[in-house]
Amino acid sequence: MGQRKTTLADIAAKTGYGTNTVSLALRGSTRISQAARDLIRSAAAEMDYVPNQIAQSLVLNRSNTIGLILHEITNPVLTSVAHMVQKTLGKHGYSVLFASSNGDPEEELRAIAAFRSRMVDGLLIYPIDHSKLDHLKALRRNHFPTVLLIHTEAEDIDAVGINERQGAFDATRHLIERGHRRIGTLGPAFTASIGNVGKLQGYRQAIEKAGLPYDPELVATPFDHSIEAGVRAIEQLMAVKNRPTAVFATSDLTALAALRWAAKTGTKIPDELAIVGFDDTDYVAHASTPISSIHNDVEQLATAAVERLLYLIDNKETLPPAISKPTPGALIVRESS
Amino acid sequence: MGQRKTTLADIAAKTGYGTNTVSLALRGSTRISQAARDLIRSAAAEMDYVPNQIAQSLVLNRSNTIGLILHEITNPVLTSVAHMVQKTLGKHGYSVLFASSNGDPEEELRAIAAFRSRMVDGLLIYPIDHSKLDHLKALRRNHFPTVLLIHTEAEDIDAVGINERQGAFDATRHLIERGHRRIGTLGPAFTASIGNVGKLQGYRQAIEKAGLPYDPELVATPFDHSIEAGVRAIEQLMAVKNRPTAVFATSDLTALAALRWAAKTGTKIPDELAIVGFDDTDYVAHASTPISSIHNDVEQLATAAVERLLYLIDNKETLPPAISKPTPGALIVRESS
DNA sequence: TTGTAGGCGTTATCAT
DNA sequence: ATGATAACGCCTACAA
Lengths: 337, 337
Hints:
- Two copies of one chain form a homodimer.
- By secondary structure, chain A is an alpha/beta fold.
- Chain A folds into three domains: about 10-50, no CATH class; about 65-160 and about 300-330, Response regulator (Rossmann fold, 3-Layer(aba) Sandwich), CATH 3.40.50.2300; about 165-295, Rossmann fold, CATH 3.40.50.2300.
- Chain A has 13 helices and twelve strands.
- Chain A has helices at about 10-15, 20-25, 35-45, 55-60, 75-90, 105-115, 135-140, 165-175, 200-210, 225-240, 250-265, 280-285, 300-315; strands at about 65-70, 95-100, 120-125, 145-150, 160, 185, 220, 245-250, 275-280, 290-295, 325, 330.
- In chain A, strands 2-1-3-4-5-11 form a six-stranded parallel sheet, with helices on both faces. Chain A has a six-stranded mixed sheet with strand order 7-6-8-9-10-12, with helices on both faces.
- In chain A, helix 1 packs across helix 2 (about 20-25).
- Chains A and B meet through helix 4, helix 5, strand 2, helix 6 and helix 10 of A and helix 4, helix 5, strand 2, helix 6 and helix 10 of B.
- Strand 2 of chain A pairs antiparallel with strand 2 (about 95-100) of chain B, so a sheet runs across the interface.
- Chain B binds a DNA duplex through helix 2 and helix 4.
């Protein structure tokens, strides 16, 4: 049975008008008489008419759809971003095509291609490799509205996102100001580390700016995003000779792992080991020892990124100069440091 | 400049063939000579041709896109579902339109309408109200492939999901078997509670099956999904006269809240208060006291749901009888009980 | 105020 | 083996 969807032609047939009259009437054109408009509209409502956006897209060269690509979705911050992006765009009549690149550059390219062949009007992307942005800059050059959900120094691409380097710098400097001289870091997981070295850079810059030696032995990298991997990593970190007295965890999950390790080994927080995390999730705020963390306003980030994207869409001919807008992060100090 | 995308006609013009020959050649039809196919294909590659799926959709009446609607995305389990769904569907050449209904039935309806007008081939949905499914059953009746991501007793709609009632029953029974007679529950947050009473039902059934009295005073409901709200709720729960000795938390986040409260008040876990959570996230497994929780295999759930949806898409004319497939949940017992 | 014709990019049918 | 024509549903000219 699968009752075929009603089209403009169906309404035209029923009301006796032509299809374009119906089309105009439904879009409220004053070129159509009030009487005809009312008649047509009630007929459309009665027949449960819904415009076919696919057909619209083809003729208007616009899909009212944008693509969102994240390199992983399990990250709670990116989850919030996805949520806010969808919510904000929905208000503007846009739908969201979503893909996660799983840390695979090939998948990222595939997703972009798939979205473009679906005529998305623009792209929001948290790229896998924050330093290899050529394929995204190329999109911009082709006047394809694109906004990165990261912070970058690159000039010729729009970017609205967290300045991870700065956040890491602030977190590490905070530990230095607390008097720590030997500070370790739990890096981002291997699976997320391709070319995203912002946090490690910030860590290192803070270390070196304070005149402290940068020691590669104090950089431990979990093999995935589980707490177990984090525990493994901090074990390794605390096993080096002359162990660190503080640790900057580049994600809250690894900060929790550090806390776990401390509980297991009876290490006192923050006296024997200070911890700072990143993202300020609920979990660290209410951990057994509340953990200091870098807070970022995700809602503001998402709405700013969407706003910028919509602006680019409205001005794709002129190709406005790219902007880079870092959203301010703030260190929240708690008992762990 | 926005260089227009190359179309079949462009390739046809360049190679001297007709557009349909080009179309057939690119799709590898043997009706076209090998020589022509090679020529056309290399020309297409050279001109960076990408088929326009919008145009394809219009003529094929199929978009190779499915819609995914969740009532909230911040829930880590739903996040994992979204991730796995996208990953699995991507392998089959499908893109995913995503929307979150934010617990608002109107938004849910809007999202469904928006997706249908975009000609999605099917719908995966975690509905807001698990008992009001008429609008979704209507989709099925219209031969529109639809799979619910919940478990339901309803017969005339496909459903692949966690049996929340059963999980809650098992969790509560476990506490009873541990000798507890007065068991409280931290219900789902208000924002998620519209018509999703599965967990509360399971809790109550276990209580009553054991011949214990069901006491509404022992049901506390956080006002949102934060840990703070959870702490507030357990405070309230533990303030009743003849306080419970055990609590079934319907989400891991509230289980953590209970743990937080216990730490703050010096309550011994599990001796003075036993806790069981739901979803078995990393966080509870590695909490200061590892928390028992109901584990669900999200990956299996997602792939099963996708598989079912693809089957429905392939057989939409015949409208296969609806199936209801609960994915098995398993109680993981840890130190908290 | 309304209707006709053409086209968006693709695929399917039917000729050649 | 290839090409011409129509169709998917809609919108924008232009004509009546």
